[in-house]
Amino acid sequence: MIKYQYRGKGPEHLLALARNHERAQLLALFFTMLRIRMIEEAVESRYHEDQMKTPIHLAIGQEAVSAGYSAALEPSDYVFCGHRTHACYLAKGGDLKAMFSEFFCRANGCAGSRGGSMHLLDKSVGMMGSSAIVAGAIPLATGSALSSYLKDEKRVTTVFLGDAAVEEGVMWESLNFALLKKLPIVYVCENNYYSVCSPIEYRQPPVEICKKAEGFGALSFSVDGNNVLEMYEIAQRAVAHAREKGPVFIEAHTYRWRGHHGSGDDSHTGYRDVQELALWQSQDPVLMMKQVMYSLGYLDEASERVMREKIELEIDAAFEHAIHSANPVKEDLCKFVYSEGDTHVVG
Ligand SMILES: Cc1ncc(C[n+]2csc(CCOP(=O)(O)OP(=O)(O)O)c2C)c(N)n1
To answer: Which of 127, 204, 112, 120 is nearest to 158 (CA)?
Structure first.
């Protein structure tokens, strides 16, 4: 049985929005999404080799959320996220070599081999952390926004979270505090309707997530998370509001195409209908944007091929880099380990 249908306005709406944007802007958004899609597919295709020493949570199908949202951020803004990190990191300007090295548990990984896919960290692009504990990044991001507020930095912190994260008390404690202090923070909930294999209707009463945030007093939006331009336009409003006035909550409706973790689709296990997945795949965020670009004359087969080849080259080079990078050494085991008291600080 199909439980969750795509509820956006589809490709015509994307095309209508596209007419209000510059060609270069649209190309950049499409490139970001395509890059994420191709990278995720490449990771998936090599995962069985068992050389990537990390669990993975692919964002295939959800690319428009981070691509559209992050385009509204300044390089100096901060992002945090949960366990589904790849798209968030890449959209914020993340370095693919550093990400792949992290997957291969190399010393030059973006988290120094200490994190793996679920704990990407790269301060150089404002990726301030991610947590495998559901909702774990939310209080960290709220603390980051408090810090920026106290320092009067005008820096916005964003935290990407899943629909399951709003089932944790710390989500609402954090939002309550952020609203009280008018902190510069945006909570972006990627509602893909499932927590592992558990549909949202088994976990939450039928109230829209953004309405719950609205009840706390936050400026809240419900967005078609497969429409990169709707995402971008709402993000611009949200980020501007957060920078000047305080917290915003965005609920982005989207769908993950792969199983909760690892490679491949797991719909055959029965927790979701294969037809449901097929329906969402017919609203492919990357394909929808590609078709818009073609119909506006901003992209054709030759220019798309150039784009794809550029990304393929980047992926190949990043795999080579990661594969041939050095493993961490035993002597560095305690590097980055901090302890208080009479023991010393190492790192
Ligand atoms: C506090 C906590 N409870 C349970 C888990 C196990 N767990 C890992 S991911 C996940 C599902 C999270 O779903 P959601 O937040 O909606 O994100 P999605 O995987 O859909 O992107 C769960 C329950 C965990 N990591 N942390």
So the answer is: 127
Q: How far is the CA of 14 from the centre of ligand 1 (A)?
A: 31
pLDDT of 273 strictly over 90:
yes
Residues 171 and 177: beta-carbon distance below 8 Å: no
Q: What does the chain come to in residues?
A: 347
Band of residue 347 on the pLDDT scale cut at 50, 70, 90: very low
Element (H, E) at 319: helix 301-323
What is the whole-number distance in angstroms between the Cα of residue 183 and the centre of ligand 1? Answer: 26
Q: Is 252 within 8 Å of 190 (Cβ atoms)? A: yes
User: What pLDDT score does 341 carry?
Assistant: 65
**Pocket residues for ligand 1 (CB within 6 Å)?**
82-84, 132-134, 162-165, 192, 194-196, 260
CATH domain 10-332 topology: Rossmann fold (3.40.50)
pLDDT given for residue 232 in this prediction: 98
Interior angle at CA 324, CA 322 and CA 326, nearest 5: 90
pLDDT of residue 275: 96
CA distance 162 to 248: 16
Which secondary structure element, helix H or strand E, spans residue 86, and what is its range? helix 86-91
What's the Cα-to-Cα distance from 202 to each of 194, 197, 216, 229, rounded to whole Å? 10, 10, 23, 31
The angle at the Cα of 28, spanning 23 to 31, to the nearest 5 degrees, equals 125
The token duo for 70 is 């992050």
Residue 171 Cα, ligand 1 centroid: separation in angstroms? 13
Q: What is the pTM of this model?
A: 0.97
Mean pLDDT (whole number) for 162-176: 98
Among protein residues, the one with the nearest Cα to ligand 1's atom 5 is 134
